[in-house]
Amino acid sequence: MNCERPRLWCVSELYFPEQGTASHLLTQTAEGLAKDYDVHVLCGQPDYFVSGQKAPARESRNGTRIYRVGGTRFGGGLVSRLINALTFTCVILFFALVHFRKGDRILAATNPPPVPLVIGLAAKVRRCRATMLVHDVYPEVLAATGTVDRRSLPYRVLSSLFRASYLMFDTFVVLGEDMKRIVQEKLGNAERPIFVIPNWADDDIQPIDRDANPFRAEHGLEGKFIVQFSGNFGRTHDLQLLVDAARLLADREDIVFLFVGTGAKAGLVDDGATGRSNVVFLPRQPRERLREMLAASDATIISFVDGMLGLSVPSRMYNVMAAGVPIIASAHPASELVREITAANSGWVLDRPDPENLADLVRSLASRDGLAEAQQRGQNARTAVLDRYLAHHAIELYSRAMR
Predict the structure, then answer these.
(1) How far apart are CA 379 and CA 373, in angstroms?
(2) CA angle (329 as vertex; 325, 332 as ends), nearest 5
(3) Which of these, 162, 173, 289, 378, has the minimum number of CB atoms within 10 Å of its CB?
(4) In 10 A of CB 205, how many CB atoms?
(5) How far apart, in whole angstroms, are the C-alpha atoms of residue 61 and residue 58?
(6) Residue 2 pLDDT
(7) Could you give the CA distance from residue 340 to residue 347 in angstroms, rounded to a whole number?
(8) Could you give the CA distance from residue 107 to residue 11 in angstroms, rounded to a whole number?
(9) Cis peptide before 198, with omega less than 30 degrees from 0?
(10) Dist CA 55 CA 312 (whole Å)
(11) pTM of the model as a whole
């Protein structure tokens, strides 16, 4: 009798020791699945957020075997990242064609965007069973952020390529019901199982009393009502909304907008912080300080640009909730973010995404009664995480989806 565990390849550009939530979640997924599968990880070097870093090309860790491959490592803007993604994708394709075997299972994340196309192709050639883990939906997200016009020839070409890549996969894992609808639309009449498996919070993220939080003391935030935006300052997020609301609240010395992170829109935040005492802009913090950083705020804002329904689910929301912090959402009413906040009464949803509306809400929350309400909704968020959004909940669902 053959008792060998099935071999599973987890494929993603971002993986340990890369910083960032996507890397951390995929690392937890691969290591959690190691009890049921012989897990091999195919990933890139950890230089997405901090250039020049290098980890061993081969490494065993927590029951998994890691294979790190490289491409070009140009720094800078969108064009450089595109070149890096394309060269990395070529290397990934070659590796997959050489190492994948008949009967292997594949779990491939959608970063960088060309990877699913080549992994789907390699899986077909090598006769593997492939599952796509959809973090972002392309090319739709490019249109939503204004990178590509939906009416253009490049968009139509990309749309055909990405649909072809979807059809090469046997099953899908998506992060929410809104994303499931988008994926089903891309598949058309093709029938594929689609599993909804939300992301989750770190077990070690817990509330900290606001008056005893060292992060507040270190950055001079004691006695302030803190509104935070943290993580990736990407093109999908409406940061102008926050910068303009901070400007409207410049006369309130008791209210501070705290921005922590980096990304394509970091310049916008930097400009908004210049000369304003009510805006604090900090670089990305090491993971060991994540708990303190998240718990330092009285409310956290997650804001999307228009057109993002079903295209991305903010993984940061679960750690925010675990820290006992309520969320202010500026997103489509049918989005996973808004659905969760409404179901758990764990924050507020802006009925219109304009700075005056946000400023009015923050003013009300900065009052004695408002702060008490924020703390109650933060407790609701924490309860929801403990009930539904921890790693062990998700890993069991992944294990079922991969069978």
Answers:
(1) 10
(2) 150
(3) 289
(4) 20
(5) 10
(6) 44
(7) 9
(8) 6
(9) no
(10) 29
(11) 0.89
